[in-house]
Design goal:
By secondary structure, the chain is mostly helical. Helices cover 41% and strands 10% of the residues.
C-alpha cells in the first residue's frame, strides 16, 4: 500500500495512457463493490485504490490509502495537486468538496483536521460558491439512503 502521493503519481505515469485502469474509491474490499466486486478483481485492467479506510485488501495493483486522511476526496485532491494543481477547477472543487462533506459527516468526525479546513478554503479561493456551505442544503444528502450516516464519532 503506497502512502506517498508523489510515488503514486510517478507509478501512474509508468502504467501508460493506453492501459485500462479501474479506479476504486472509498471501497477497500471487493464486497464493498457489491455485485461487480468479483468482476473488478478478475479484470486484467490495472486496479487503482484510493481510500482512507484501514487494511485494504491486497488485490489492487496500485493504491493510495491513508487512514489518517479525513476522506477519499482529500486523497483524490492530493493526487491531483501533486500532478497538476491547475486541474482543480470549479467543477472538480465542487465534486471534491461534496466527497469530503459526505465522508466526514459535514466535518463532524474525529478525522477532520486543520489541514482539511485549509484545503476547503483553497476550494473557496478557486471559486467554490459559499452557498454549498449551508447545512440545510447538505442535510438531505447526508440523511438519505444509501449515504445515511451513523452517529458514530469516526468514519
Amino acid at each position: 500500500c503506497q502512502r506517498d502521493v508523489r510515488s503514486v503519481v510517478r507509478r501512474h505515469r509508468q502504467i501508460g495512457i493506453r492501459d485500462s485502469v479501474i479506479g476504486v474509491m472509498d471501497a477497500d474490499a471487493a464486497t464493498r463493490l457489491g455485485p461487480v466486486g468479483k468482476s473488478v478483481m478478475a479484470s486484467s485492467a490495472t486496479k487503482l485504490l484510493i481510500d482512507h479506510h484501514t487494511n485494504p485488501e491486497r488485490w489492487f495493483d496500485l493504491s493510495y490509502a491513508r487512514e489518517s486522511a479525513s476522506s477519499t476526496g482529500q486523497l483524490v485532491y492530493e493526487l491531483i495537486d501533486a500532478d497538476d494543481p491547475s486541474l482543480v477547477d470549479h467543477q472538480i472543487a465542487s465534486a471534491l468538496y461534496t466527497a469530503i462533506v459526505t465522508d466526514t459527516g459535514s466535518f463532524r468526525f474525529s478525522n477532520v483536521s486543520p489541514d482539511l479546513h485549509r484545503l476547503v478554503s483553497a476550494f473557496i479561493d478557486r471559486g467554490l460558491p459559499l452557498i454549498l456551505f449551508r447545512p440545510s442544503l447538505l442535510a438531505p444528502l447526508l440523511t438519505s439512503s444509501p449515504l445515511s450516516l451513523s452517529s458514530q464519532a469516526t468514519h
